Amino acid sequence: MLRAQRNTLKLKCSDVGDDLARRTVPPSTLSLLGLIRHLADVERRWFRQVLAGQHAPPLFSSPTHPDGDFDNAVADPAVVAAARRAWHDEITFADTFIANADSLDVEGHDSWRGTVSLRWVLVHLIEEYARHNGHADLLRERIDGTIGM
Question: Which residue did the predictor score with more confidence, 73 or 18?
Answer without folding.
Answer: 73
